[in-house]
Amino acid sequence: MNKISAVIPTLNRPVDLVLAVTSVLEQKYLPDELIIVDQSVDKQSHDAVNRLYKNFDVTPKLIYLHEPEVSGLIEAKQRGVEVAKGDIISFLEDDVVLHQQYFENAISIFKNN
Q1: Is residue 92 classed as helix, strand or coil in its secondary structure?
Q2: What is the pLDDT of residues 53-71, one digit of tens each?
Q3: Nearest to residue 34, comparing CAs of 16, 43, 22, 47?
Q4: How far from chain centre, in Å, is Cα 104?
Q5: Cβ atoms 83, 6 nearer than 8 A
Q6: Which residue among 13, 30, 52, 71 is the one 20 to 30 A from 96 at the CA level?
Q7: Which letter, b or e, does each residue of 74-103 get, where b requires 16 or more Cβ atoms within 10 Å of its Cβ?
Q8: Is 7 a residue whose pLDDT tops 70?
Q9: Cα(73)–Cα(85) distance, integer angstroms
Q10: Across 95-108, average pLDDT
Q11: For range 8-32, the mean pLDDT
Q12: What span, in angstroms and rounded, lies between the C-alpha atoms of 57 and 59?
């Protein structure tokens, strides 16, 4: 079975990030790990995600990298890849709400091909 790492880069968007993470946690097929690369100067997004995680019984492993020194989207994605353990890496945006079958559909494509 393939392991999935979901990577979400973010910068100063705690409200949008919570919506995006909620859509990950409500998936029918959860990724094995959720990596958030937070370039924000404060801990507002970090605290909001930690509060959110407490509301779910089953969750992917959370790897939260609060690294304000990371500069830009490409560097944030590279940082996420460096720590990812999955065979499949799914890059997500911090302002996108996923369909509940996003990961289920993605993994079926890999199984069928």
Answers
A1: coil
A2: 999 988 899 999 999 999 9
A3: 22
A4: 15
A5: no
A6: 71
A7: eebbebbeeebebebbbebebeeebeeebb
A8: yes
A9: 20
A10: 94
A11: 97
A12: 6
